[in-house]
Amino acid sequence: MPCESMQSSATTYYNEIASEIRSGISFEREEYQKKINGLKAALCALVNELKKLEKYDEFIKTASENSDFHLSSFIEEHTKEDEQRIIDSFNDYLSTLSKHEKSMLKQIFKIGE
């Protein structure tokens, strides 16, 4: 089953990172962050697929009952981080536009009518 495979992959990936940390191997911060981001992306992909299959609520309930890890809290925090990253990126983009271009965007998206 694809979800089991993805979960197994994410678990293996997590265990590899945890093992490396426990064994005292030092990571450069950037390399470590890339591994963390990869794990977060895998969890996010799993959650998105579960939502498409309308299995998310069942999965969260079962995971909470069988684990001390509260996946729902992680997903909520991850969603907030994604939203903030998108807002920041959009604001950065908007700061590069002229007044005319901003006006055009408002017309395109029917803002302020």
Description of the molecule:
This protein has five helices and no strands. The radius of gyration is 20 Å and the shape is flat. By secondary structure, it is mainly alpha-helical. The longest helix is centred in the middle third of the chain and has 24 residues, at about 30-50. It has helices at about 1-20, 30-50, 55-65, 70-95, 100-110. The chain has two domains: about 1-70, no CATH class; about 70-113.
Key features of this structure:
113 residues, 2 domains
Fold blueprint:
Layout: H1 2-22, H2 29-52, H3 56-66, H4 71-94, H5 99-108
Helix pairs in contact: 1-2
Structural classification:
mainly alpha
* Mass-distribution shape: flat
- The domain tally reads 2
Number of E-type strands: 0
The total of helices stands at 5
Distance between the amino and carboxyl termini: 50 Å
Low-confidence stretches: none
Main sheet properties: none
Work out the radius of gyration.
Answer: 20 Å
Strand content: under 5%
The arrangement of helices and strands along the chain is HHHHH
The averaged pLDDT comes out at 82
Helicity range: over 70%
Entry summary:
By secondary structure, the protein is mainly alpha-helical.
